[in-house]
Every structure is written in C-alpha cells, then in structure tokens.
Amino acid sequence: MGAPTIDAEVCAGRLKRLLASWNDGEGALWGGAQAVLVGTGQNKEDDLRYLKGVALEVWLFGYELPDTLLLFTKTEVHVVTSGKKTSLLTAVAAAVEASTGVKLVMHNKPKGEDGVAQADELLALITAGSLSPVGMVGKEAQEGALTVHAAAALKATSAVVVEIAPGLADAMSVKDASELPLIKKAALLTAKAMAYAVDRIETIVNDEQKVSHAKLSEQTEDQILDPAKLGLKDIESDDVDICYPPIFQSGGEFELKLSAVSNDKKMHYGVVHISLGARHHQYCSNVGRTLMIDPKPAMELVYAAALAAQEAALAALVDGADLAAPYDAARAALIAANPAGKGEELAAKLGKTIGTVIGLELREPSLTLGPKSRGGTQKIRTGQCYNVQIALTGLVNEEAKEGSKGRVWAIMIADTAAVSSAGAPPDVLTKSITKALKDVAYAINDDEEEEVEDVKAKQKAKAASVKEGGVDVGGKTRHEVSGPNDEDNRRRKQAALADKKNRETHARLIGAQNAEANGGKGGATHDFVAYRTVADVPTPRTPELVLQVDRDNEAILLPIHGQLVPFHIMAIKSVAVTQDAGHAFIRVNFNAPTGPGLAANASYPANIKFPDASFLREISYRSSDTKHANYVVQEIKALKRGVTQRETEKAERATLVRQERLALSHGRVHRLVGLWMLPTFGGRGGRKAGTLEAHTNGLRYVGAKADETVDVIYSNIKFAFFQPAKKEIKTLIHFHLHNPIMVGKKKTKDVQFYMEVMEAVQSLDGGRRNMYDPDEIEEEQKDRDREKRIHKEFSAFCRKVQDIWDKDFPDLRLEFDSPYHDLAFDGVPFKSTVRILPTATCLVELTEYPPLVVSAEDIEVVNLERVGFHLKNFDMAIIFKDFARDVHRIDQIPVQNLDNIKQWLATLDIKYYEGKANLNWKPLLRQIKDHPDGWLEAGGWEFLNNEIDDDDDGEGEEGESESDFEPDEDDESEEEEESEDEDDESVVESDDDDDDDGDESEGMDWDDLEDEAAAADEEAEESDSDDKKKKRKGGGGSGGGGGAK
To answer: Is the pTM of the predicted complex or chain greater than 0.85?
Structure first.
C-alpha cells in the first residue's frame, strides 16, 4: 500500500459545492457568515462521536486530520496543521486553485509547538479583513486545543460568532458518484450483519438457549468488525466500524433510540427489536427490524400497519418533495390501516420525526423527516441518503397478563434509502433484509401444545386399555441382550459400589472445601491496581466533578462526597444508563461477595484478602447532560471489554503448560503420509494433506505450508486411539492430551490425524446401475483395496509407535486403544446425532468434530434419565469427579442399547442409576458441594435410586436408605403418581390365585407380561394353564381373572 494522497479532482469538486451552498444559502443555514472556522482535536480510536469537523475533513480530503484548524473564506482556505499533513495538502494546492480559484494556504505548526502562533495568524486575517460574522460549529468549540484557543480569542474581539452546522450539512448531504458506492457497501455489510443477528435469534429460540442482550450485541459487533465472517471478502476489516453498539431489546423494555444500550437481561421469547449500523470508509448505514415470536392476531395487524406506513414514507422520498412529506404519508397510512380501530392512536405515537439524512454522520438534526421541517427552503434532493424508520412504542398486548413481559411491546422498522432522480422511487439499500410479516412472525408453541395434547390423549387411552386387562399389541418390547443372571450380577455389583462411591465423593468434597477455604481462587480482582499512590490520581479537570475514564491506567474516577475516587475497571461488574424526565441515570454495579457464608465469600477473592473490609455494591448518578452520560457509559464498557478480553487471552495462555522440545530422530523416521489434521490451522487458501512423523520423544505433523507444524510430545498424551473405518468414511489416529497445545490460534486438548477411505459425496447423475455392472464391481473392489491399504498403513505405523513407547517410555503406560464397535450406540453429545463408541478406558466419538472423549476415571456416577417402557429413547447424564465441570449429557440414545451401556459401565466399576425424568444438575451439584455432610447423611447418591421406591411400594413402607436429597418436589410427586399407576396396572402375586383357574401371573415384571401378551395373541384358543406354564417361563394368561389390587 503506497503513501496516502488526496484526490485533487474530488477535493476541488466538493469545495465548489461547499462554496455554492454558502453563496446560495439563506441566513438560517449559514447565518450570514463571512468566514468559517472549523477545528478538530486528537484522534480517539474508540470514540463513536460524530463531529462536523471530522466529517468535513474526510469529505474534502479523504482523511481525518487530527489537531488541525481550518479557516474558509470565499477566496481562500487557510490550514493550521503539522508534519505529513502539511505535505499532503500542499501537494494538491495548485490543482485545487486552478480548478476552483480558491487558494489553499498552509500554516505549518513546527514540531514541539502548540500551534497557537499559527492560530493567531488566522485570527489576524479575520480581524484585518473584517470577516464578521464568523461561522463555527457551536457544539464543537471545545474540540482540540487550537479550536479552544481560537474560540476564546474570537470571544475577546468584536467579531460575531454564528452557527453554521446546518450549512455544512446542506453542502455534504448530496452524495456524488464516489460516495454512493461507499454507502452501498456499508449497507451491504449492515444487511449481512442483520441476517446474522436474525439467524442467531432463530437458533436461540429453536434451541431454547438463554442469552443476554449484551452478549448478542457483542457477538454481532464482532461480525461487523470482521466482514470476512459474513462472507464479504472484498471489504477489509480496517475500513469498517460500527455506527453504534448493536441494540437488542425484548421483554417489554424498549427504548427505540440509536443511543439505547443492550442490557444484561436474557432475551425474552416474545417481541425482539434489533437495530444496528455499520460504517465503511466513515460512511454510515442503518437498519432496524422487529421479530415477533408467537404474536397475537391483533399484534400482526399493528405490525402490518407499521410496515405499510414505512412503505408509504419511502414512496414519498422523491426529488423535490417537502421534508415533511414522508412523515405525512406514514401518518396517513397508519390512519387508513386503522388496525382494531387504533389508527389515530398509532399515528400519535410516531413522534417528532421518522428519519434524517445519513452519510458521514449517523444523524443530521437539520435535515429531518418530520412536521418541524414542513414548508422549509430545504427539500429532498437527488443523491441524498436517509435513514427512514417507523418507531411505535408503548403498545399493549391486551391478551397478555398484566405485568408480564409480553404485555408491553414496540415496533421499529428502519432502512437506509438513496433518493433517485426524476421523481423515481428511492433505492432502498437494505432491502435484502426482509421485513414482511410472514418472515418476522414465528409460531413455535401452537404445534407443540397440540403434540403434547395428542401424547397425553394416547397415554390415557393406553392406560385405560391396560386397566381393563388389554395389551398394547403395537408396542415394541425392549430388546433383551443379556440374560437375567447378568442383570442380577450387575445389580449386586452396583449395590456394593453405592457405599464406596458415596464415601469417595464425600471425602473429595471435604478436601476441596478445605483447599478453597485456605487458598481461594487466584488471579482475580484484588490483583489489579489502578494507581500505586495517591499522587498518581489525576486532578479534576473542572471545578465541577464529573465521571471520568482513565484509559492509560484502566480506571474510572467516580465523584463521591466531593472527591474523585478511583476504581480499577475490573472492579466494575456492569454499568448501564437510563433516561427519564430529561435526565440520565447512570448505575454502576461493582464486583462484591454474593452473600453471607463461606461459599459466597470464597467466590470473591478480594473478600478473602480483606476479610474485614466493606464492599461497595452499586452507585448511581443523575445527569442533565444525557449525551455525556451515554458517552461515559460507552467509554466504560469499551474499556472493560478491552481489558477483559486481554486478561482472558492472558489467562488462557497462562494455562498452557510448557512442553519439552521435540528431539528429532536421526536416521530412519517412521512416517505416515497423506494425512489430514483436526483441528485445522485456519487461514485462507486450499487445504492440503501432510505427513505424521514419529521422533524420539514425540510426534510431528508437517503440513503443506511452512508454518503448519504441530508437535505432540509423548509425555503429554493421555489417551491414544486407533479407529479403523468400520461404518465410517475415515481411518484415524486420535490423541487426547493432558495439557492443551496451540494449533494455529486455537487451544486444544484433542488432535486427530485421518485419511478418508472413500468419497464422502458421490455423484448420483451417472445413471442407474445394477449389481452385475462390471464398472460398479470394479469400483467397489477399488474401494475395498483402498480401505485395506489404508488400514494396513495405519496399523503398521501404530505398531511402530507402540514399540517406541514400550521400549523408551514404559512409565507412561501408553497404548493405542481401539473402540468396541459391537457396543456402539447413537446419541447426541453436542448438537447432532453421532455414533458413540465405548473403549476399554473411555467413551468416545471421533468421526465428527468436535470429538467426544470421556475418561472412565473422571466419571463419578452416571444417571440414565427418561428410562421408561413407553419411550423409545433415553438420555445419559455423566457427572464428573470434578464438580467444577458441567454435567455432560448424551441425549436421544435408542432404548435398545440400554443393557449394553449398563454392561459397559458395570465392567468399568462405574456406578449408575436409572430415572424417569431429566434433572437440573447445576443447582443440584451446587447443593451437594455446599453441604457434603448433609448429603452423605441423607443417603448420598441414593437419591437417584428409583428402585428403592419401586421395591418398597408393595410393602407400603419407605425404605431405610431412601434419601432426603430430592432433585425437585414436583418431579418426585409426578414419579410417585406414575409409580402408583403402574402398580394398579400390574399383576402381583396373590394367595388366592392358586384356588382359581391358575391362569394368573405370579410376581411377573413388565418384560414377562409383554412376552406373555405377544404369545397369547398368537394363540387362537386358550389352552390349559398347566401346559402354558410348561411351555413358557412366566406362566399366566391375559384374562381378567383376579389381579390383586
């Protein structure tokens, strides 16, 4: 990229437009100014303010010129600046003068000087030429030291200062041929970001996730700042920025302003408002959408009316129209639609404006689409771009409960549009994001409620048929893999494991509590220092104390009792600003102990270091300057976000354990070529296969590029797997590590090397083939030969590596483990259904990424949930010995695999339980962790044991080992009711059965009853009961003789 240059032709053309507007403008726009004085201060990277001075510099010269003062007269432009900026402007001075007749005069500020002398030269020109009134941007008179000095000096003279912001806005409002493409690119980026946000919300709703508005805002902002993530490879990330932090609002709290802030509350599944804007080369674009989840018909009518109003406003956005015309069209459309007779009421909610000019600034107050602009001299002109938005707030959903989150709702629909020529309709730049009612209204609960009602009806019908002595013939029986002796053995072994597991868990929890009480958690708030001494604290800038942000020291200064009190940014938990009655209220929440007690105090390390200290939990301020309040809050959030990200990255890298250097082998090196690796290195360009080499103390993978190298040291390998391609498309070697390593920019504990044995995608357009087709036979034979060859190569490499381990590293006890394909089962460990394979030491899924590797030695207990005869699938909850780890769930496991999984768990001495409901494990584990003694006294893990209740129900007594640790009272009551229903429906042993026809079952379980029913249905006539008992293991028929009650 070459040195920066100014386009002299563009600069001259825009300077002509500025002078034309100045010469032709009325007094209301330029105030009769004879000279224009505009200045800028130092550049601030994270500053999202919009300044006329900066916009004017970018518009004229293509660059922002920090710390610069400009004086415009009708014949000259005087510039006070320094260094390279002077050279940059001098290079185009002659060309600009030749084209416009305006002389560009430079006043170079020497290095090390403040430029006051040069600014005084400009003031002398104003005085000598009697250039009064002097036009300035009133709100920016304090921007930069040069501007402050010039404004003060003018005030001391007899010169009159007038406001010229509307005149500058008028000159820059019409976009030329080089500006429109930039705004269109910004609009494209904005539309792509909105598509991402909508898709993200759809995923959250479908997966029933809990995500805060602030988190959604951060995620969307990351997408905007990296256009490549949105598929925009031709837009450089250095050229883009956000117009404002993306806004997400829901749950009845709506502030339909571009200065609104996304709060930390979780997104509510109702009405969701999204508003976001992106900048490309400083040019802005904005879009707003409202999504409705399960809206009522009345809400849909109101949305349709709002959409019609926006379409009417856009249609009125034509060349030469009055600035109030779009507002009038929108109001008329709302009244005409009149949803539920509320047309006038909705029209009254439109507010003072429905949009402004957009360009280098997000909003231009002097060019608004509202009644205030009616009849003015300024009209809508070709080339102008507007942000047209319909915002209706304070709407009430009459069908929602009073006080509920869905009671109050709002609508915002916003688009960026460019005015076309010759009265043609405007070009809506963000039209790719749909806003039709059918695309923003989602119905998710109606179908589910109908399905639930259907399921309940079927369950009731089935229960009634069983009570009457009938049998569900269509029902599937559980596949019995092992005999009753195996089940009895497993039960005895599990009973012996129960007491042992309870004692181990209790001892581990007590030890963890003692360690936490002695040391606490490190690396937290008490490690951060804002200022070492009181002398380092900056003095107040003004007599009136205000909130300040010190970026250099990563601190905020809060006025408390007449003093500026410093707080490090990491002491701040959150900050928010709200507006009410013309005032802004800033609320700062601090990190503090969550409550009384050892556990709450231990969660905040500063409380451990200062046990006698009092902690400030929150503080609030009221300000009449709402703009400054919003600015301060954004500054605090930006600083906290940056520091938090830095500390998070530092903490992640700090957890990396330094590995020993790889010792390269001399002589013959065992290699496996043509391998692919997961995780990938990332980056651009096509991927190519690499080579895996076995060296003295580790493995090295060498990719196609020079920087694609990964070393896996043998001592860092925890588990090694070799999985041949059986019902999979690839043969692989997988290593699960003790400590994570860096692959590219990713930290990972799993590294996989694989080779595909067949094509994952096959073409189906080759015509139909039959089994005798020679080409088909030959192709299948090639696939089989390729699979054998790959298997042979992988096996040989694994044997050679195993020899190195056995010979040189026997203490590591490393061995390649292969999965048991016969025990494979399907399940959902993450997001999709995959084939999960048990091994001798682990439960793994290695074909899909991310991989699943669960070590048996890390498992505390396993709870098999939703196990019932009426369900085809069940879930497995894996509780780890480390309670800090989240419980891992494997969902939707076919019930046919239940006995196989039990057998595998029992073989590895893993205690398991069965239950009928899914448990909320996070609060449950927290309760166990906080009260280990009470948990042990209540029976330990036996609160998961439903067999205790089943065994004792027949005797009408509670078992002695029944636990008081109940997951949930409601769940338990439901389970008891289901248990009682099953007891009523089952047939139990009775003393009177022998006196009857002997055709009743004797203590049979459900499996026996299902076998009996299936056999009975095949019999055409009832046979003698004694003969049946000889033929069948369980005896008894399905007649309604005398089941015990």
So the answer is: no
